[in-house]
Amino acid sequence: MTDKEYLSLSRFSVPLLPKPLQRARIVLLAAEGKQNKAIAEQLSLGRVQVARWRKRYAQHRLAGIERDRPRGAPPSKVDVARLVELTTQSTPSAATHWSTRTMAAELGISAASVSRHWRANGLKPHRVRGFKISRDPQFVQKLEDVVGLYMSPPEHALVLCCDEKSQVQALDRTQPGLPLKKGRAQTMTHDYKRHGTTTLFAALNVLDGQVIGQCQPRHTHMEWLKFLKKIDRSTPKDKALHLIADNYATHKHPVVTAWLDKHPRFHMHYTPTSASWLNMVERFFRDITTERLRRGVFTSVPELVSAIEAYVAHHNIQPKPFIWTKSARDILQKVIRANNRLSSKQNAALH
Question: What is the mean pLDDT of residues 10-15?
């Protein structure tokens, strides 16, 4: 099709695209000798727009008015392999981890591109998870013992996960906060007043999720012994008791050991060192911290103790047990892999 044939189509009701049709009319009116101002008034366009399309037609003929030029800068090509390598194998100068802006400046791309490729590759440099591998020489035996109680609890017995949440502070804010409302989060002052501490002793029943709780001012072997006596009073006398606890020295104090010897229905099972995650009562401690303590305001220790006791009582109305799903073998394989990776890192650091 020649230029004249293409332009002549705009004089009739031929189904052309709106923009090419408009541009063709600009060219035709210009061919009739009309000025840009007159063309703009007739087509309800801007004079600069008319001049631009006349210039494009003069330079590129039909190709100049058939389609729009691509807008904006051409998309920059991201070297994803290098981005992942830098994120996982290096750190920026004077910082511990990469941010989207520092990585964007390093690679010469946009921060949005960095964020998009981090999400696609499951990378979150701003987050860090705590861990510690147990070096207990009896790790395997203790692991199998504790997990065995979770997966196959003994008959005619109760399995109780026991521990203490020490130094729970009664914190009062220096100013009253504002309540939650539409468009605004609840507010609390960053500073606080301390009014003392208490220690929460708790025993979580693995079978039904009920909790035996007791608050005491300290966490020595005497308080631990008092808590054991409360467990003895609060459980059926015909049931054997298998208590899971950590290796805190007060749990193995000679006075405590002597008392346990006189109460044979108590059977102690200790988690490996640096493996508190094996004790399911830690999950209950997390819940009470996030749901009741962290944002609580307490003007005295008795007020704090009342709040803790009320939470435990409410929990026991409709308790839900925590279900353990990982076998000892699965956990052991994961620990072995972590040990191997840690050993390779330490060897690389030495060389």
Answer: 44
Same domain, 45 and 88: no
Q: Which of 217, 227, 244, 259 is nearest to 162 (CA)?
A: 244
- Assign residue 199 the CATH number of its domain: 3.30.420.10
- In this prediction, residue 342 carries a pLDDT of 79
DSSP-derived secondary structure for 292-324? IITT---SSHHHHHHHHHHHHHHHHHS--PPPP
Confidence of residue 15 (pLDDT cuts 50, 70, 90): very low
Is 161 inside any structural domain?
yes
Burial class (CB in 10 A: 0-12, 13-18, 19+), 157: middle
Q: Tokens 């949005």 sit at which residue?
A: 112
Residue 333 has pLDDT above 80, yes or no: yes
Domain that holds residue 258: 144-178+186-322
Share of the chain above pLDDT 70, in %: 87
d(CA 54, CA 82): 46
Same domain membership, residue 61 and residue 23 = yes
| Nearest by Cα to 286 from 230, 202, 205 | 202
Rounded to whole angstroms, the Cα distance separating 27 from 216 reads 92
**Structure-block tokens of residue 284:** 């209950």
Angle between the 36-43 and 47-60 helix axes, to the nearest 10 degrees? 110
Rounded Cα gap, residues 95 and 88, in angstroms: 14
pTM for this prediction: 0.71
- Listing DSSP states for 19-87 in one string gives HHHHHHHHHHHHHTT--HHHHHHHHT--HHHHHHHHHHHHHHTHHHHHSPPPPSSPPPPP-HHHHHHHH
CB atoms closer than 10 angstroms to residue 144: 15
Tell me: the pLDDT tens digits for 220-236? 999 999 999 999 999 99
Query: Do residues 256 and 224 make contact, with C-beta atoms less than 8 angstroms apart?
Result: yes
170-205 tens-digit pLDDT: 999 999 888 999 999 999 999 999 999 999 999 999
**In a domain? residue 12:** yes
* pLDDT surpassing 70 at residue 81: yes
